[in-house]
Fold this protein.
Amino acid sequence: AQSVTQLGSHVSVSEGALVLLRCNYSSSVPPYLFWYVQYPNQGLQLLLKYTTGATLVKGINGFEAEFKKSETSFHLTKPSAHMSDAAEYFCAVSTIPGGFKTIFGAGTRLFVKA
Amino acid sequence: DAGITQSPRHKVTETGTPVTLRCHQTENHRYMYWYRQDPGHGLRLIHYSYGVKDTDKGEVSDGYSVSRSKTEDFLLTLESATSSQTSVYFCAISDGLAGGLNTGELFFGEGSRLTVL
């Protein structure tokens, strides 16, 4: 069975500072990894994903994440936070055996201070 | 926007009554999911479907059942609603990763807010 752990339910950064949101996964088969963002009163939208190939993946709005198999991690980063990045971020893992079952982490709420 | 419609969008019901939430898609995607979102728990998978009449349990399936008789519709039923099932329910769809153009991305509906008194 797969699972996702997001370290830190709340993260606060200053505008212009580095954003680092942590995600660790557990999977008995090769995982497909995703980051989604949810703005207040909205649904989720995809930020970026890792399926195969290059382990450093770039997404929308300047975010990127690196798949590290040895550490079972898929941390999300952005060099310089913007006020508009304030939202809740979810890491997710999908596995193909079992019908593309997709499990989400508990989420990390990002606050950006002026 | 992906063609996903959830109904009803808001519902208030009493403990012990049955409730059915409907998810309808126009994308012909193979995979469909029901999640519930609660503060501090993120999105938890209730049930999912990988084809017509093919469904499986998720992390929090107790008290819920699902049915998928057509590609486009995925129903979530609470046979006897309890206050612990008060939540926001999201339907999602995906084309998976089986084909060259498939992205694996999940597309979400707008959510159904259920209150059980």
Q: What stands out?
A: Chain A is about 0% helix and 55% strand. The mean pLDDT of chain A is 92.
